[in-house]
Amino acid sequence: MFDLDPLLQHASRRRLATALLASLAAVAVMAISESAYQFAEQAVDSVRTRNAARFDALMLRSLLADAETGQRGFLITGREDYLKPMQEAEVQMPLVMERLSAQYKGSEWADLVAQTRQRAEEKFSELRTTVELYRSGQHEAWQSVMAIDYGREKMDALRQATERLEAHERDRIATDRGAIYRALMFGRFGVHALTLLSLLWLLYFLRKNEALHEARREHAEILRDERDRLEHEVKRRTSELTDLTRYLQTVREDERAHLARELHDELGALLTAAKLDVARVRRLIAKGTLTDVDERLSHMSGLIDEGITLKRRIIEDLRPSALSNLGLTPALEILAREFGERSSLAVHTSLDEVDADDHTKLAIYRLVQEALTNVMRHARAQTVWVDLTRSGSQTLLRVRDDGRGFDPSAVPAGHHGLLGMRYRMENLGATLRLASAPGQGTEIEARLQNTPQPQARPDSAGAAKPAEEAAQHEAR
Amino acid sequence: MYPASFTLSNIPEHPEAVMSALRAFIVEDSPVILENLVGTLEEMANVEVVGSVGDEAAAINWMTQDPQDGADIFIVDIFLRSGTGLGVLQAAQRLGVGARCVVLTNYATEDMRRRCASLGAERVFDKSRQLDELISYCADLAGTPSQPMPLSPAER
User: What pLDDT, in 10s, does the model give residues A378-424?
Assistant: First the structure.
């Protein structure tokens, strides 16, 4: 039968693993997503910082350039309002420098930043100097300062430095941007992959589920078939038993009716006749005709003898005295012989001594009786063989005839009698087999298990015994 | 038809006192009983058994042939091979049979006696206990009273 349990166990084990996997997958998705976010956030921050640094570098340059332009303007025109950028720069530059220094502190660019700072301060001091000189009217002085290119060198150096810084920052920004993209890619593929896996897993799960349902359906169908089969079998058996019960009751009533009829018709008649004889004798005596009395008494004695014979026959029919007094084998021999005489069939017997309890012996006797009755009624045979053999742990009884046989698949004549026998055998733990074919005779075979029994004593075999015993004593 | 057998050992010589045998027709299905009954009645009771049958149909058949004067007495058993003695009694009433009807049966209960009486039976005799009475009755009818020895207490 299809075993559903391993599949269910498998499925439930799977369920735990599946739940675990699902949780892991969910955690993984969240982790990927989270890490991607963190990474991107970092990178975005980084970009912001770098942009700030870049801006500062540019700012520095722009401040100084503006300051220089302002200085030039002032030097050319002498107007104080040209100095505004310088004042601005004076305020802003330290702040910017601080920021840049802080930004690059501890990195390889720290030196460059320090240099830049220095250059810026030098350039700014140059600007301041020239402005001071102009203010104090020392025009040749500031012109010679301009002429020595001090300012320009510093400015160039500054420009280079800031350009380098800026370029560096641009690169770093590019790198960071790349990193962001990678993080996002990572997140995106991660999620895609997990989604796909989830889908695959779902499909797998659905398939397994379907398989489980299929298995369950099959299982239910098998159970249904089994149940139908058993129902059918139960019905068959029940109807068989009902038949058998009806038959047994009928048979019992028939037997009783037969017995009653025999007792009434035959025994009753004999007794009535005897009473008539008595009446006649009495009248003869009254009349004085004593010569006929003897004849009458003789006749009466004959009637009584017939009565006794009849009574014996009836009792033997009820329960054979030979069976309990002489044993199974002699009883069967007598049965066979009498059957042969009654039916003019040839009867061959081969009977082993059988060790069995009284119920079994009686059952065997009845089976042979029933079988022989069937032979006489239906078989139209010439010969009958009755074999009782004992081999090892089994006793084998076989009754075979060479009559016309029958088709076992059709209901055979004498069916009910043998059906009763079959049940009787089954109750003893024996089997009954009926074999026949049209034109090929019939064979009845019973197999019994040998259970060694102690020799049964009359009072130990059951309630029916005392009545039988009384009957046996009567018969003698 | 059974041959008449007279055992008239004490018949007077006067012609007018010659007793003719009582013609009896017996309806009884047991051959043993019938044989012994015939013998007894003919020997002990001056009866001539003119016929006997074992079933109702045959009895009615015989009756129909000569209802008035076929026999002087019908002795009928209740349980027959087929049909019943009650049916015979009924038919006898119906056919207006001239003879008396008496019942001889193993089943002589009060109920049965009443039924037989209502169907025209003159007497009902129990086959086990009243055989003597039947013999006496027949003998009386035949005109030759026949008595057995006095009944013993057990038989009364």
Answer: 888 999 999 999 888 889 999 999 988 887 777 665 566 777 788 88
Residue B76 in any domain: the answer is yes
Which residues of A, range 275-294, sit inside 8 Å of B by Cβ? 275-277, 279-280, 282-283, 285-287, 289
Instruction: Supply the pTM of this predicted model.
Output: 0.53
Residue B67 lies in a domain: yes
Confidence of residue A265 (pLDDT cuts 50, 70, 90): confident
Stretch (H or E) spanning B25? strand B22-27
Interchain CB contacts (distance < 8 Å): A and B? 59
The structural domain count of chain B equals: 1
Mean pLDDT across B136-153: 75
Q: Are A239 and A27 in contact (CB under 8 A)?
A: no
Instruction: Report chain A's mean pLDDT, rounded to a whole number.
Output: 84
Residue of A nearest to B44 (CA): A280
* Chain A residues with CB-CB distance to B135 below 8 A: 279, 283
Q: Domain residues for B85?
A: 20-142
Q: Is residue B125 part of a domain?
A: yes
